Amino acid sequence: AANSATHDDAEDYVLDDAQTVQITLNGSTITADNPGVTVDGSTATITAAGTYSLSGSLTDGQIIVDTADEATVHLILNGADMTNSTGAPLYIANAEEVVIVLADNSQNSLTDGSAYVFADPEEDEPNAALFSKADLTIYGNGSLTVTGNYNDGIASKDGLVIAGGTITVNAIDDGIRGKDYLIVKDANITVTAQGDGLKADNEEDATLGYIAIESGMVTITAVGDAIQAQTDVLITDGQFNLQSGGGSSSVIDETASAKGIKGVVNVNIDGGTFTINSADDAIHSNGSIVVNNGTFALTSGDDGLHADATLTINDGDIQIIDSYEGIESAVITINGGNIHVTSSDDGLNVAGGNDASGTNMGPGFGGGGQRPRGGGPGQTMVSQDTFNYTGSYYLYINGGYIVVDAAGDGVDVNGAIEMTDGVVLVNGPTEQMNGALDYDAGFKITGGLFVAAGSAGMAQAPGAASTQNSLLLNFNGTGAAGTLIHIQSSDGTEILTFAPTKQFQSIAFSSPELVSGETYNVYVGGSSTGAATDGLVQDGTYTPGDLYTNFTVSSVVTQIGGNIR
Question: What does 4-48 look like in DSSP terms, one character per residue?
Answer without folding.
Answer: ---S--GGGG---GGGPEEEEEEETEEEE-STTEEEETTEEEE-S
